[in-house]
Each structure stands twice: as C-alpha cells, then as structure tokens.
Design brief:
about 120 residues; 4-stranded antiparallel beta sheet; about 50% strand
Length: about 120
C-alpha cells in the first residue's frame, strides 16, 4: 500500500509560479510511474502530466506543455510539479497518483492517489 502526501499548493497571481510536491511511503517508489491530475468542482478529474519510474520519460497534457514540468527524485521518494505562467482557469485541486503501468494518462489506470491540494490562481 502506497501513501501519497502532497504539499505546496496555495494562492498565486496569474502569471505566477508554484511548485507542488508529493512524497510517497509504504511502497517501492521507483516501481511506479507518477502523475498529476487536477479537478474543478463539478467536473471530471483531468490528466496534467506523468513521469516514468526512472524519470527518463515524461508526458504532458497539451494545455500545460511548455509551462509545467514534472520531475522526480527517487532517493527522496518524491515527485514534483513545477507550474509556471499560471492562469486563473487552472484553479483546481491537484492530485498526485501512482501507477504500475507505463506513463498512463487515464484516471482508471492509477492505483494510488494523494489527498489533493488546492491551487488558486487569482486574476
């Protein structure tokens, strides 16, 4: 059983930056592909970015390409999401997730989820 604990959300102005982190425990972190999703109340949880177990491969949703960077530190069992040039419409609860599959992008392909952290982008 993998537990995922996130930190780093908060309030930022449009155009600003935030970094989210997600620390894993209870499993072998390097076995898992990791990802970030986000969800607005009343809407589906959507894929944002994923990184392979080694960190050698990444995949991004089109709407964050060039602005967000996902990375991981297997020695610290932590995955990060650097978010730049944030937009008000990106206000959401952000979730990290772990999967045994290779760079999955579908919610159903993920085995473990963090509790979610609020990111609010003011205009």
């Amino acid at each position: 059983q993998v537990q995922l604990v996130k930190s780093g959300g908060g309030l930022v102005q449009a155009g600003g930056s935030l970094i989210l982190s997600c620390a894993a425990s209870g499993g072998t972190f390097r076995r898992y592909a990791m990802s970030w999703f986000r969800q607005v109340p009343g809407k589906e949880r959507v894929f944002v970015a994923a990184i392979s177990w080694s960190g050698g491969n990444t995949y991004y949703a089109d709407f964050v390409k060039g602005r967000f960077t996902i990375s991981r530190d297997n020695a610290k069992n932590t995955v990060y999401l650097q978010m730049n040039s944030l937009k008000p419409e990106e206000t959401a609860v952000y979730y990290c997730a772990a999967s045994m599959r290779t760079l999955p992008t579908l919610r159903v392909e993920y085995d473990y989820w963090g509790q979610g952290t609020q990111v609010t982008v003011s205009s």
